[in-house]
Write a structure and sequence with these properties.
The chain is of the alpha+beta class. The chain is built from 22 helices and 51 strands. The protein is globular, with a radius of gyration of 29 Å. This is Glycosyltransferase family 36. InterPro entries: 6-hairpin_glycosidase_sf, 6hp_glycosidase-like_sf, GH65_N, GH94_catalytic, GH94_Enzymes, Glyco_hydrolase_94_b-supersand.
Length: 900
């Protein structure tokens, strides 16, 4: 098995015999809702949402088990039927034989091409697939059949794409009954299906979606016949791999205008017999998709079903997505640079697919979660910051007045929905993420005034941080917090952030750490909601409080803001009696008092507090958390290794350290104590040694999430029911492994941070082991296979880490600062590395020059040149934002930074 090979600097790659990998899939999508997955044999699905699947839904196991795939058949006169996708019984049986057909995949961002050669049939197929980056809700295929023999060949071409046309719920639930809803019609170019009703969780409703397959030859010639019913297409005793109508080359008798009702449908489309001369080729264009009417498919046939239009649309689509990925890297390792090109694209994919709708992401029913809203913005700030302000402002509309947040995210930006099942659950980490993203936004832009913008609060049945229900509330009142006068209440973004952090500060367990509730970042820690505590995220909240205080100080000193206006109810959370911080019951009572005050509504009265007073209060809380963790959670085991305990279980027992079942260590607690500066520098050194000893495993990509607990620990979380080395239980979970790298870089441990990134990259880039296309997966399992590819928050954190920590290109209140932490081994043969990035709406090519060949820690920034002219700086190497915005916005500018 060979590795994939990049063929340019835009991530385009080739891979031989890709079908010899059973669980690979590739994303094809656009921004108007089409979401497809495709395999080397054109398996996979195509859908708009949970209730609108054109092709049958697939999970990971269906990729090798499902026969209902896209197909294109060629009947060669005198030889027999051949599948251009390789999906026939005979071709499948020959996969491991010497007669295996020669195949190669070539793919780039949002397009996929598979080439297949058959010596036996003397023909070659080349199938290119993509979803146009337009408003059209279609997926396009171009099938080119080439005669690679030295004799003419007479062929009969047939498109064969099974049409599912219903909700994913119907895959088993009422599968046959829902086929009775089908109204099938043949048109000039294809087959359309317009079900009468939909049967799903929404109830029995009139269907409003038309599904279909249309096709033509490359020069626009129409089909000559159709076979739109599955059972007639496959024949009695047949299947999609051995369809009787194709294998026996039966005539497709049905013409345009025919109608059929109540059967499973297929877009089986027959073209006229044709003779292909030696070394000549015939091309066919196929469109599958969704419409509001039959006319939508007629338009697709007119606009897209010719080779010229297809090629033009592909070119425009490729250019569209490349413009979206307006960040690139140049280091000594060209493979890494290209691999990162795909990582750059992953946050865009997650905005489209949410956390579902790719084969391994077969949980949930679509949409993104609360963390995703904020972490995907991290990458946007590097690639497309223009609309981030509005996005952040809208996202804050999901915060509840008790510091928790909505858990069901709507399709529209800023849309949050009350849980239809009234499930009361709190993820205790949710309040921490919005500040991390907001802080990055402010640092990048200098827009400190964003903190004073106003936004509403989300309101539903859940109150008291998941402990109570507001029985006075119902949906008719809307989902916004209101005053006692029934007016919608709005608070500043700063107030939202304070609500999230101050309520968390008082929401503690018996060891005076923040309660775990239903889980933190690790959703698998979901069985300790009574007595569980998260030391890990206590430290993150503490670090955030300190950083909020720093932003307030900037507001006071630079913007001359003397007082901050807050809802009167928050006064109870701003106590000057710091002695209560040590008393768990007192803190819990304060939280209860606050939550009771705003259980159903708020007074609507505003109180004013001086910046100095607010800063002192917040910094006092941050200091207390840090000192509390340092005093109580630093552990040293019998082998002499030291690290921070991260959790308490539902029996209020410390989770980490030496036990009768072995040493227990978790990565999460180390990440956030390092990142929040709770861990002293000497402690960071000890943590690194402990993590390298207990968690690092190069064979599976680096740092595991935890050691083997050797029990199903039902007083902490479901993750311990998973086999060790899989998903949250001891796999290399990319998200936390990358955040560990980020934390190490932040603290100046660049060599160790690079090790974490380089190990996971090297593993993923080794296709023979990882078995995934370029990019970073959610996790790596015990065999080293990358799992849950593409849709992972780790991509955003990796981009952030590479840009702002490794390359050291970061904002400081809107100015551009350079703090490189690049290792000597990363510089190329010319002693350079470069990053191209958007900053202050200008494209900048930032080049670091290390002619002295010094290692990180030995060099510093000595000279800066902007477009060849030296820029003088004093002290910190930085460029004023005003100077950058004065540059021509229509060209790329080069900034050279000399290290000495």
């Amino acid at each position: 098995m060979s590795n994939y090979k990049f063929i340019n600097d835009k991530g385009t790659f080739k891979l031989k015999s890709p079908e010899n990998n059973s669980y690979m899939y590739f994303p094809l999508a656009n921004e108007v809702g089409v979401m497809s997955s495709i395999t080397p044999t054109l398996n996979g699905d195509c859908k708009m949402d949970q209730n609108t699947f054109l092709l049958a839904p697939v999970s990971g196991e269906d990729l090798h088990n499902n026969k209902s795939s896209r197909n294109f058949w060629v009947y060669v006169d005198g030889i027999g039927a051949w599948s251009a996708t390789g999906v026939s019984a005979i071709q499948q049986a020959e996969v491991f034989s010497e007669d295996k057909e020669e195949t190669e995949l070539e793919a780039g961002v949002m397009w996929h091409k598979i080439t297949r050669k058959s010596k036996k049939f003397g023909i070659k197929s080349e199938i290119t697939s993509f979803v146009p980056a337009t408003d059209e809700k279609i997926e396009l295929m171009k099938v080119t059949i080439t005669n690679i023999s030295n004799k003419p060949k007479k062929i009969t071409p047939t498109v064969a794409i099974p049409l599912y046309c219903r909700s994913a719920d119907n895959l088993r639930d009422h599968r046959h009954v829902t086929s009775l809803l089908n109204r099938i019609e043949t048109t000039e170019y294809g087959v359309i299906v317009n079900p009468t009703l939909t049967f799903d969780e929404r109830g029995h409703k009139r269907n409003t979606v038309v599904y279909g397959v249309v096709a033509s030859t490359g020069n626009g010639e129409k089909p000559i016949g159709f076979c739109p019913i599955v059972e007639e297409y496959i024949g009695e005793g047949g299947s999609f791999e051995i369809p009787k109508s194709v294998l026996l080359n039966e005539k497709f008798e049905i013409q345009k205008g025919a109608q059929r009702e109540g059967y499973e449908a297929i877009g089986a489309i027959r073209f006229e017999d044709t003779v292909i001369e030696a070394n000549a080729a015939n091309t066919y264009i196929v469109a599958i998709g969704f419409g509001a009417s039959k006319g939508d498919f007629d338009n697709a046939a007119i606009n897209e079903l010719n080779e010229t239009a297809f090629d033009k649309c592909l070119e425009e689509t490729t250019a569209y997505w490349e413009r979206k990925i307006n960040i690139s890297y140049k280091t000594k390792d060209k493979q890494f640079d290209n691999w990162m090109h795909w990582v750059n694209f992953q946050p865009i994919l997650r905005r489209i697919y949410g956390c579902s709708f790719l084969p391994h992401h077969d949980y949930g029913k679509g949409g993104r979660g609360w963390r995703d809203l904020w972490q995907d913005c991290l990458a946007l700030l590097a690639m497309d910051p223009s609309n981030v302000r509005k996005m952040l402002l809208d996202n804050f509309g999901g915060v509840r007045i008790d510091g928790t947040n909505a858990t069901i995210i709507g399709k529209k930006q800023g849309e949050f929905i009350a849980d239809r099942n009234n499930i009361v659950r709190v993820w205790m980490d949710h309040g921490a993420w919005p500040f991390l993203t907001t802080k990055l936004y402010i640092e990048q832009t200098g827009d400190i005034d964003f903190l004073l913008e106003k936004q509403s609060y989300f309101k539903d049945l859940q109150v008291g941080r998941g402990t109570q229900k507001d029985n006075l509330w119902d949906l008719s009142q809307g989902n916004k917090v209101r005053t006692q006068n029934s007016e919608e209440y709005k608070g500043t973004i700063l107030e939202h952030l304070l609500v999230q952090h101050l309520t968390a500060f008082y929401d503690v367990g018996e060891h005076n750490n923040l309660r775990l509730h239903g889980a933190d970042w690790n959703d698998g820690l979901d069985m300790a909601d009574e007595k569980g505590e998260s030391v890990a995220f206590s430290s993150l909240y503490g670090g955030n409080l300190q950083d909020i205080a720093e932003l307030l100080r900037y507001l006071k000193d630079v913007k001359k803001v003397k007082n901050i206006e807050l809802a009167e109810e928050l006064q109870v959370l701003l106590t000057d009696n710091v002695k209560v911080y040590d008393i768990v019951e007192e803190k819990q009572n304060i939280l209860k008092s606050y939550c009771d005050k705003c259980k159903h509504d708020v007074k609507g009265k505003i109180s004013s507090i001086s910046c100095d007073e607010l800063i002192a209060d917040i910094e006092g809380k941050a200091k207390w958390i840090k000192e509390h963790i340092q005093k109580n959670e630093w552990i040293t085991n019998k082998e002499g290794y030291s690290w921070y305990n991260g959790y308490y279980d539902n029996n209020a027992r410390r989770v980490e350290g030496d036990t009768e079942l072995g040493t227990r260590m978790m990565l999460t607690g180390q990440v956030f104590t390092i990142m929040s500066k709770t861990a002293a520098e000497t402690q960071v050194e000890s943590i690194i040694k402990s993590a390298d000893n207990y968690l690092y495993d190069k064979a599976v990509g680096g740092y595991r999430l935890n050691t083997n607990f050797n029990e199903v620990k039902s007083d902490l979380g479901r993750m311990f029911g998973f086999a060790y080395g899989h998903k949250e239980n001891g796999a290399v979970f990319s998200h936390m492994a990358i955040m560990y790298a980020n934390a190490l870089y932040q603290r100046g441990f660049a060599k160790e941070g690079f090790k974490a990134i380089d190990t996971i990259y090297s593993h993923c880039n080794n296709f023979e082991v990882s078995r995934i296309y370029p990019g970073i997966p959610e996790y790596i399992n015990e065999k080293g296979r990358g799992m849950y590819h593409y849709l992972t928050g780790s991509a955003s954190w990796l981009i952030l880490t590479v840009v702002s920590e490794m390359f050291g290109v970061k904002g400081q209140m809107g100015n551009l600062v350079f703090v490189p932490k690049i290792l000597l081994q990363q510089f190329d043969e010319e002693n350079k590395v470069a990053i191209e990035i958007n900053f202050a709406e200008r494209m900048l090519n930032i080049v670091y020059i290390n002619e002295s060949k010094k290692e990180y820690g030995d060099y510093s920034v000595k000279e800066i040149y902007i477009n060849g002219e030296e820029y003088k700086f004093n002290g910190q190497p930085a460029i004023n934002r005003n100077l950058i915005t004065s540059l021509d916005e229509n060209i790329r500018h080069t900034i050279e930074i000399v290290l000495k």
